[in-house]
């Protein structure tokens, strides 16, 4: 597995992140330890969890003994710790302080490498969130910060505030991204590319749909968060296209689906999770899959997607010499 820099920092992070959301099931058992060993053995070094993921942090705290410093440990705060307490949720300073202290105790560490804001809180001023995050960095309890599930304008404004005021900016964003969910291509991915942010992509298999389990592929057994009855023709058509490409390139459908999320944008890091070691080994194989342009075109033709306004409109303007003149098409981008 190869490595990239996290955003505009010097931190080296692996191509694939490991999602430990499911580590609360059964405690820190042999299977969880074996999965962590397999991920680290493949060269992976980013472990992603959250305060809201049940016992995941506590399980990881036990499993990370003896290898904490070799891994980039990421967790999140925002989601309620106590639904009867209005201040036990949100992106404000009080919840950040208490959530972070709880996470550090559970993870059995003095600091986390990356703290994500779990989602945008409309009721907390961005200034408060960014200053509170910067204070956590200055206190040495957090090294880098990012934000998950937020509009592009929120991320842009937050980093502008950080730049102007000398605070720690977001180094990355976390978003849902797969062939079946391409919405982030409208604003969030272009923003990340322009601002130099890393993108952690959750749900690259669309809840298992792109593994083929609901469209005649293998792996239909086991629990799933997807109700097969809710899947439409587009879902099945895309899953079939993934299976076809997988057969052509000699990979599994899951590997092809994960590889696609990385193919167009080198700053995208899929978050891979797994039910067991066998499934994890298959998903990790996506790091070795390179999709040719023909394969990418076939996949994207099945996953019909329109960028919409303003993206499509601006692209049309750039192609029209009436707008920027004939010389525009000979202008090399810097």
From TrEMBL:
One of its GO terms (molecular function) is oxidoreductase activity. Keywords: Oxidoreductase. Residues 16-302 form the NADP-dependent oxidoreductase domain. One of its GO terms (cellular component) is cytosol. Gene3D superfamilies: NADP-dependent oxidoreductase domain. Signal peptide: none annotated. This is Aryl-alcohol dehydrogenase-like predicted oxidoreductase.
């Amino acid at each position: 597995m190869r490595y990239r820099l996290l955003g505009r920092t010097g931190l080296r992070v692996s191509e694939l992140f490991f999602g430990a959301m499911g580590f609360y099931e059964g405690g820190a058992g042999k299977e969880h330890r074996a999965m962590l060993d397999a991920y680290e053995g493949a060269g992976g070094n980013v472990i992603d969890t959250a305060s809201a993921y049940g016992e995941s942090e506590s399980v990881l705290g036990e499993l990370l003994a003896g290898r904490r410093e070799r891994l980039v440990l990421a967790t999140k705060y925002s989601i309620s710790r106590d639904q009867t307490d209005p201040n036990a949720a949100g992106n404000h300073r009080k919840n950040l302080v208490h959530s972070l202290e709880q996470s550090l105790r559970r993870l059995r560490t003095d600091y986390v490498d990356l703290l994500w804001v779990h989602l945008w809180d409309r009721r907390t001023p961005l200034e408060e969130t960014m200053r509170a995050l910067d204070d956590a960095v200055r206190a040495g309890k957090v090294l880098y910060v990012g934000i998950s599930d937020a509009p592009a304008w929120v991320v842009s404004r937050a980093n502008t505030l950080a730049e102007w005021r000398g605070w720690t900016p977001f180094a990355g964003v976390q978003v849902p991204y797969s062939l079946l969910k391409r919405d982030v291509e409208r604003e969030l991915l272009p923003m990340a590319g322009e601002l130099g942010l890393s993108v952690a992509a959750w749900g690259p298999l669309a809840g298992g749909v792109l593994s083929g389990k609901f469209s005649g592929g293998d792996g239909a057994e086991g629990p799933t968060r997807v109700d097969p009855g809710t899947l439409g023709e587009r879902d099945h058509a895309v899953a079939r296209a993934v299976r076809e490409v997988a057969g052509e390139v000699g990979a599994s459908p899951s590997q092809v689906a994960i590889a696609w999320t990385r193919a167009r944008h080198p700053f995208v890091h899929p978050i891979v999770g797994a039910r067991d070691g066998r499934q994890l080994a298959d998903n990790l194989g996506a790091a070795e899959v390179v999709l040719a342009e023909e394969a990418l075109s076939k996949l994207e033709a099945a996953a019909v997607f329109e960028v919409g306004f303003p993206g499509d409109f601006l692209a049309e303007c750039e192609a029209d010499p009436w707008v920027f003149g004939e010389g525009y098409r000979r202008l090399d981008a810097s």
